[in-house]
Amino acid sequence: MDQVQISFRGLESTAAIESNVRERVDRLARYHDDILSCRVMIESPHHHHRHGNLYHVRIDLSVPGAELVVSREPEHRPHEDLYVAIRDAFDAAERRLEDHARIRRGAVKAHAPRARTADSSSEGDLGGGLPT
User: Fold this and answer.
1) CATH, range 4-105
2) Angle subtended by helix axes 15-28 and 82-105, to nearest 10
């Protein structure tokens, strides 16, 4: 995939982090062949000395017919290790791409709407259905 953008907020970019992200983006092609672009934003919004830094990773994927967004917020599942935050975000992106590809293939069964049944009490039938 040619369209990969990696941005950093609140932390410095390193070659190791960028290569890790690019490897993971390349792995996403296994789940969907037509990924048009991928934007990865890595953020360290907190600078805590007691608890360490928490990382937020957001992945925006453009595929034909959809824009898939995966966001791993530090409040819900705090990550003090940047590589764990990246791994978890890309694992979620893989699941989202698998689901999207399954839907596009038609492998997901669409359920027909259920027919509404008449409730016996709403029709005024108080007995067992026998005429009196």
Assistant:
1) 3.30.160.100
2) 20
User: Of 46, 47, 44, 48, whose CA–CA distance to 58 is shortest?
Assistant: 44
Q: Residue 28 belongs to what H/E stretch?
A: helix 15-28
> What residues have CB less than 8 Å from 36, skipping those under 6 apart?
3, 62, 63, 64
Would you list the domain boundaries of the chain?
Answer: 4-105
Numbers of helices and strands, H then E, in the chain: 2, 4
The β-bridge partners of 70 are 59
Q: Which two tokens stand for residue 61?
A: 């994927």
Neighbour tally for 30: CB within 10 Å: 10
Backbone angles phi, psi at 37, to 5 degrees: -155, 160
Tens place of pLDDT per residue across the chain (132 aa) = 668 999 999 888 899 999 999 999 999 887 777 889 999 999 987 665 555 678 889 999 998 888 999 986 655 566 678 898 899 999 999 999 888 888 887 766 666 777 776 655 555 555 555 555
